[in-house]
Amino acid sequence: MSARFDWPGLMRAMLAPPGGLSPERFWALTPAELRLILGARAGPPPMGRARLDALMHAFPDLPKETRP
Q1: What pLDDT, in 10s, does the model give residues 19-49?
Q2: Number of Cβ within a 10 Å radius of residue 18
Q3: Hey, is 11 helix, strand or coil?
Q4: Rounded distance, CA 20 to CA 18, Å?
Q5: Which of 10, 18, 33, 35 would be 40's cystine partner, CB 3.0–4.6 Å?
Q6: Are 37 and 29 in contact (CB under 8 A)?
Q7: CB-based contact 9:38 (threshold 8 Å)
Q8: Cα distances (Å, whole numbers) of residue 19 to 14, 15, 38, 58
Q9: pTM of the model
């Protein structure tokens, strides 16, 4: 992964007025909430069922006895 973790942004989120985030609230954040707080832009939309079906067809699970 080429992206670096945004430690300064994380510290700003924790310490920013008014009051910042308590440790309990910080650790209760979802990844989406943390990305929003850090100012991350919206990513690609989640994979739809059609794409999942296509991937499952292209890369089927193999029976245990035929796995490498």
Answers
A1: 778 888 888 988 888 777 777 666 677 789 9
A2: 4
A3: helix
A4: 6
A5: 35
A6: yes
A7: yes
A8: 9, 7, 16, 50
A9: 0.40
